[in-house]
What does this fold into?
Amino acid sequence: MKSKMLFALLVCSLALAACAPQATPMPEPTAMPEPTQAPAAEAPIAEKNIVEVAVSDGRFTTLVAAVEAAGLVETLSGDGPFTVFAPTDEAFAALPAGTLDSLLLPENKQQLTDILLYHVVPGQVAAADVVGLNGQSVDTALAGSQIGIKVDMGNVYLNDNVQVIITDVAASNGIIHVIDAVLLPQVEATQLDIVDTAIADGRFTTLVAAVQAAGLVDTLKSEGPFTVFAPTDDAFAALPAGTLESLLLPENKQQLTDILLYHVVAGKVLAADVVGLDGQSAETALAGKSVSIKVENGMVYLNDTVQVIITDIETSNGVIHVIDAVLLPPQ
It folds into this structure.
């Protein structure tokens, strides 16, 4: 009897074991990947100085070249802080033809330096501060020269017509505001003679080159006074092909001199005086040759067709009136 009971208990135990859930085997541990070192991030732009920001930006290649030519890299890489109004490459390209090439010449380094310093304001002046200066002027790094500030329809303009198009580009030693044109120092014309005024203006590079080739620099820098009818670079470019090149040859120096003297009248004749000479002629510095004056619809014409387009640029030794064509002496 006992044997039967033991057998029955054994059968029940085996049955219960068979019905029990089976243990799930533990998975093999997965090896963790080796940590990958993150690439070094580029230094934030605000950790670069003004020159480095301009170089890395890509829109200021001409400005950077000018800063290098003027020897101002170390200055603008210094502690500062500085506020720089930075013209784009397109702004420099919009200067009159030949102006930039002339400024980059070693002999014009001081003029280039002055122009660049005129784009720098000491201290860090953010856009919000600039807007608050509406109607005022700020001192620049060019001694004695200021920039006028105007706010119109939410836009900021410097010296009335140069627009600030991007603001608050941060640098480690200051701030950059991007502008759409090159600022030219507001130099009092009466501080410069006729030749230096023409050089500083930028629209008379051909006239200046012709005056130099003719040996008339000392004459037009003398006491005077003189009135000069000054053709623009575009006016010289409109001459028949090859004319200018021929005039600049040494063997044609006298002909070039005669043409230039034909643009000069003795004395300081302001626009109001010229208008009063309607229908008359004025003797020029070319002996025996005069220019005729005609006033029509408020405009002044010389020799009937050459128009005076800008008047009364006063200088220390006279006055300049700008004309749209080259005057040629009558034969």
